[in-house]
Amino acid sequence: MTVSTSPENKPVLAGDSRLAGVLHLLGLINLFAWPVGLIIQLVMWLTAEKDDKLVDAHGRSAMNFNISVLIYSLVGVVLTFLTAGIFIFAFIPLLLVLMVIQIVGAIGGSAAAKRGEDYRYPLSFNFL
């Protein structure tokens, strides 16, 4: 693994930047076919070379965000049922915000992967 420093003092990792970028963009599939993007991301991340730190870091970041979105969605569905549908007025805007973050995050994560920099999604928990 090669680690250097960019002008902004962000660590730059050597690795397959194309695969790392694709792992972020695969999350966009979740907007239309939810489990498909998550499964493809997981399979590609787990089958990537184990010594590729760039792919590992970006795959982990993308998976953490998608798991976080799943948890946010499940909490929203439960709250909607518990409040007899009243929470739906807060849940729909929350889903729209998560969709925008998914789109912007996937593009930003892919660009960061191309530069070899680490990337963290906003509102994402570290599960992996």
Index terms:
single chain, 128 residues, mainly alpha, two-stranded antiparallel sheet, 2 strands, disordered N terminus
- CA gyration radius, whole angstroms: 16 Å
Number of helices: 4
The backbone outline, from C-alpha atoms, is elongated
Mean pLDDT level: 89
Strand content: under 5%
Helix content: 55-70%
The tally of structural domains comes to 1
Number of separate strands = 2
From the helix content, strand content and strand pairing, which structural class follows? mainly alpha
Distance between the termini: 21 Å
User: Mind summarizing the main beta sheet?
Assistant: 2 strands, antiparallel
Question: Strand arrangement, largest sheet?
Answer: 1-2
Q: N-to-C SSE series? A: EEHHHH
Low-confidence stretches: 1-6
Secondary-structure map:
Blueprint: E1 3-5, E2 11-13, H1 17-25, H2 34-47, H3 53-82, H4 88-115
Antiparallel strand pairs: 1-2
Helix pairs in contact: 1-3, 1-4, 2-3, 3-4
In short:
This protein has 128 residues and is mainly alpha-helical. It is built from four helices and two strands; from the N terminus they run ββαααα.
